[in-house]
Write a structure and sequence with these properties.
- The complex is a heterodimer of chains A (about 325) and B (about 270).
- Chain A has about 325 residues and is α/β, with parallel strands linked by helices.
- Chain A has 12 helices and 14 strands.
- Chain A is elongated.
- The C terminus of chain A is likely disordered.
- With about 270 residues, chain B is mostly helical.
- In chain B, strand 1 and strand 2 form a beta hairpin.
- In chain B, helix 1 crosses helix 5 and helix 3 crosses helix 10.
- Chain B starts with a helix and ends in a 7-residue tail after the last helix.
- In chain B, about 50% of the residues are buried.
- The model of chain B has no long low-confidence stretch (mean pLDDT about 85).
- The chains are: A alpha/beta (about 325), B mainly alpha (about 270).
- The complex binds adenosine-5'-triphosphate (ATP) and magnesium ion.
- Magnesium ion binds next to helix 1 of chain A.
Amino acid sequence: MRKVAVSIRGFVKRFGSVVAVDGLNLDIFDGEIFGFLGPNGSGKSTTLLTIATVYKPSKGDVEVYGFSVTREGDAVRKLVGIAFQEPKALWVDNPYELLVWHAMVVGYSLTDARKVVREVMEELGLWEHRNKLFSELSGGTRKKVEIAKLFIQKPKLAIFDEPTAQLDVTTKHFVWGKIRDMNKEGSTIIVATNDMVEAERLSDRVGIIYRGTLRALGSPSELKDMIPGGDIIEIRVEGFINESILRKLGDILEARRLDLSNGVLKVYVNKGEERIATALDILTRENIKVRSVAMKEPSLDDVFFYFTGAKLEEVRG
Amino acid sequence: MKENIRALILVMLWDIRKLGRYKFFLVMRFTWFLVQVLIFGLLVAAMVSIRGPGGLLDYYKFYVIGAYTAVLFSISIMKGHDVAEELEDGLIDYQLSLPIERRILALGRALGGGLASFTYSAPMLFVTVIVLKVQNLIALSALVIISLLLAISISGLAVSIALILRSGDRLDILMGVSDSLLVRLSTIFYPVTALAAVAIYYYVAKVNPVSHAADMLRYVAEPGEFSGYVVADPLIMVSLIAGFAVASTVAAIVLLDRKIEGGYGR
Ligand SMILES: Nc1ncnc2c1ncn2[C@@H]1O[C@H](COP(=O)(O)OP(=O)(O)OP(=O)(O)O)[C@@H](O)[C@H]1O
Ligand SMILES: [Mg+2]
């Protein structure tokens, strides 16, 4: 049994008549990087803010390392840190003072706070902006200040709400590296994101939330295998394939769908890697000449579409 | 305990850190105060003559302390506005997520708000002390303490109301109303002896903590001059002011600790 860092049970959150999260059950394990995926408005931020004790559950409970967010909030806050989706700072603040204040609140002495803040600001290219007002910073720079808080804090459970949403490519890769480093140094990480590349690069496991409930949970490759007919075997053939051969192929390969156009046969199957050989075997026996074979795995995009309602075929066109 | 005191000081710094950022606001307030003291006060004092138990009242001095109390009051009430703004900008969300006990967070915001408001009004207190020629060290410290208590009370109250109303606009309206009511229906500009003529006015002014603060400041600054014109016995005034400070701080703590969650800005 893996140690559980966050246990979410029957969690419901309502805002007036809006049900933001509707009965969520989820365990996040100690030491993992957990990717939290879902379309806009699906309840990601609401869930993360509840883990961070900013919101209170309308129903159910959330525990962080065994402490309840409703009854033992003070204990939870000692373990959790969150970088918000919208950067939080006074407009009249300058990044340096804000981060030093943050560092001291999370336990650094003034001397250490100054040191660590400078290090992190330099790494993120923020040092030159240290004395500007927050209102003068660009969107991406504000976002960097927000994530800097967690790189400074290094909490046991670090929550990043769409950390790289506004960052340039170089910074994105740097931030991913830093998040992985934090994880190696012992922090459990939750990353909410809409960016499939980010989810795939970072996450040990991914949870997909849609309209306030969990739709899928597993490692990125497990999730891909969950899509029925998610793999596509593309075979370029010479000559004609008749209906009966097609039907035979479909039956033996357990294909969800078969398309043949312009000499390219597309077979939609599960676990395509295990079926390529069989497919070639059948075709050779039927004397059909194969010119090339390729297999495409579904992307995490496909997984996302699949579990959040959009149909794979529709999206593929 | 040591950890909590450290956290408390850091939270108080949140408000104090902002002090230097509103210089324009401070200059405006100060200028307006000087206009009141140097022009209005003298004009009004020349027109008004109030005779009370202690003989003829020095209305100019009475007015200057009243003006100072009014300034302190409205600067402290601005704290409510600050907090409402922070709710809307999600800064309260940020603070709620920090590893600080909620009670300490609330106490720190109330005390920090009071201290920051007092600091803003310190130049006005300085002018007041000069005009009244207060030289006695005990009287000076008493003036500071009472001012601080009033600032903490009012900012605690304003913060609590901001947390309940959750909106800067609604807060501004309510604060505007309470500003005029609490200041008008008090002994800030009218001695209690003069108010006795209008019953409602008189009774409201008598229970209004702002009256007690203003009169206590007067009593401390010049007991000889003003002891005949106070709303209540000094001991009662001090208890009421201190009680008000504790009550409004506790209100802010209970609200932040139990009731409050983030997300108001959405
Ligand atoms: N403080 C709030 N008050 C009212 N409604 C809210 C509040 N916070 C969230 N909601 C609503 O709850 C739902 C879930 O919002 P949430 O912010 O959790 O979504 P999200 O998955 O983080 O979306 P995004 O990808 O856009 O950040 C939405 O319908 C949103 O409008
Ligand atoms: Mg969100």
